[in-house]
Amino acid sequence: MAWRDLFSGLTGGRRAKDLGADHDPFTRPEAVEASEPDGLALALDEIEAAALEVYAANGLPDQAGHYRRAPNETEWRFLGADMTPEARFALALEHPPEQGWRFARLQDLGARSDRADVREASRLLNDVAEFRLARRGVLTQDHLLMAMELGGAWRALQDARAIRSSQLSLSVPRKPRARRDKPVSEA
After folding, report:
1. pLDDT digit string (tens) for 57-79?
2. CA quadruple 168, 170, 175, 181: dihedral positive or negative?
3. SS3 assignment, position 104
4. Nearest of 62, 79, 58 to residue 70 by alpha carbon
């Protein structure tokens, strides 16, 4: 996938000539429904899927939404895909953090992990979520920097998959055998 395709998705992934004659140029990008995912959306999906693989390999949930963990428990329980701030606040009042209750979004579950790969997966999930939200509004220089960092992460994922699926293996070279010099016979 070319970088041009990825960055064309920053503004909705469609050019004016692709939108047709009935396109209103004053319609905000978030009001225009995408008929199919663009290159950037597909790359964000790949990054998210790879980060969720890391979560799953480390025993964390992989379903988007809100979670809670009771005191003295290690597993997170799914609360719901979308919760209003009022509902989250009410849960926090019913189950105070001072008593050991913990609440988090999926992308925040691995942020305080002891493992670096889980913390990185958490950071990627947060960046993907923030960037998807930003695409519906006004993009800033920070969003462009985030897109570049996500592009680097996407490239690293592509390279890692290529290495995993490769049949090549690296090994220590063997010492060369001692050569015996044979005289060349003339015939």
Report:
1. 999 999 999 999 999 998 999 99
2. positive
3. strand
4. 79
User: DSSP 3-state assignment of 135?
Assistant: helix
What whole-number distance in Å separates Cα of residue 29 and Cα of residue 133? 12
Burial 129-161 (b: 16+ CB within 10 A, else e): bebeebbeeebeeebeebbeebbebbeebeeee
Torsions phi, psi of 103, nearest 5?
-130, 140
More confident residue, 49 or 17: 49
The model's pTM is 0.65
Question: In terms of residues, how long is the chain?
Answer: 187
Collapse the DSSP code of 64 into the 3-class scheme (helix H, G, I; strand E, B; otherwise coil) and give the result: coil
CA distances from 101 to 10, 62, 63, 97, 144 (A): 39, 20, 20, 5, 37
Over the stretch 136-147, which tens digit does the pLDDT of each residue have?
888 888 888 888
